[in-house]
Amino acid sequence: MFGWISGFFTYETTKSVVVKSWSVGIINRVAQLLIIIYFVGWVFLHEKAYQVRDTGIESSVMTKVKGFGFLNNHLMDVADYVMPTQGSSMFCVITAMFITPNQTQRTCPEIDKNFNCTTDKHCEKHQSTNVANGKITGKCITEVERCEILGWCPAEDDHQNITSMSEAENFTIFIKNSIRFPLFNVTRGNMGENTNLSCFFDPINNTDCPIFRLADVLKYAGENFTNISQKGGEIGINIAWMCNLDQHVDNCKPKYTFTRLDSAFKKSSATKGYNFRFAKYFKAEDGSEYRTLHKAFAIRFDILVSGNAGKFHLIPTVINVVAACTSVGLATVLCDIILLNFLKGAKQYKAKKFEEVSDSVSRSPSFDHHQGSQMTIKREEKSSDDSGAYSIRHQM
Ligand SMILES: *[C@@H]1O[C@H](CO)[C@@H](O)[C@H](O)[C@H]1NC(C)=O
């Protein structure tokens, strides 16, 4: 118990031991060099630790799709196939559609095979289902062996073949993106003031053009048009702004990348693609309402803007220079481990490095003449420099 207490109340102070050994010396310098290379090459040049970063990018996106196509014998223009119509950063291009015209509110047989029946009993158990085309009344229509529904009739039959709008591959998507880095008050747009807008984006030859051919976007995302146009899907257009504001602001340009966002479900049998329903409502002359139901398969585009900007600033520079200088000292830790454990004569080094001085010894005047230390290696040690550090010569 006493030993533990006296052990706790001791004070450790460092003493410099100069080791004249080539191998440890070389390891020490190499370790220091590696640490310096890491800080200069990675931390400063690559990660630009001398800059302050603004990651709170402000962005606004406007989009416009153009082109004409034929779907179900209709000529489709932008107002027909783009939803929502506002031109926001998320929009859908409808590429295929089931149309169920002239639906009115009444009762009629369900179409889905899951609702087949021969007696009313089979239908009563479905009465609270959500997946029918209308509310199941509990009656069985025996002529067609299906349950009766109340709702918009006739019920939609979406188990037919579907053709897609092949002209959609030549549609163009115009993207207008304006961003600001509030910390530096820098505003940029994804095209110059006098960019010629009769161009198509190309990731190699024409990276400044903000007009994208729809089939190209799918191609860059690794998809092909025929697959995605029949079932629908979700494509992400990423606009990345990585700006180094130490250079001229004109070099602050966006980089576009394309991904299929719903690729996790590409092979899923339960849910594939992307579709939604909408209806257009009409009134007949006798005042009765009817509607046309559309089940639309669409390619949904999400435009995701990200980015950050950096600029030289004194405070991060000083902090990182100090961190770099401190870290050079880490080489000592490595060398100590090697010196005290793996080199020949490690025991003697240990004896030199850790020295116990008790209260009474330190008070003794003779301590000043190196008498108090337990030096037993060689008598050729000498005071090496003004700090009173010991020097041990050891030929390796
Ligand atoms: C798309 O445009 C190209 C070139 O203008 C044309 O050859 C091709 O037939 C068009 N595709 C469709 C489906 O109209």
TrEMBL record:
**Segments of skewed composition (Basic and acidic residues):** 366-385
Extract one GO cellular component term from the record. Answer: postsynapse
Q: Which UniProt keywords apply?
A: ATP-binding, Cell membrane, Disulfide bond, Glycoprotein, Ion channel, Ion transport, Ligand-gated ion channel, Membrane, Nucleotide-binding, Receptor, Transmembrane, Transmembrane helix, Transport
**Pfam families in the record, alphabetically?**
P2X_receptor (PF00864)
Which InterPro entries does its entry note? Answer: P2X3_purnocptor, P2X_extracellular_dom_sf, P2X_purnocptor, P2X_receptor, P2X_RECEPTOR_CS
- How is the protein disposed in the membrane? Multi-pass membrane protein
Q: Name one GO biological process term.
A: response to ATP
Q: Does the keyword Kinase apply?
A: no
Of which family is this protein a member?
A: Belongs to the P2X receptor family.
Q: Which NCBIfam families match?
A: P2X
Protein name in UniProt: P2X purinoceptor
Species whose genome carries this gene = Ictalurus punctatus
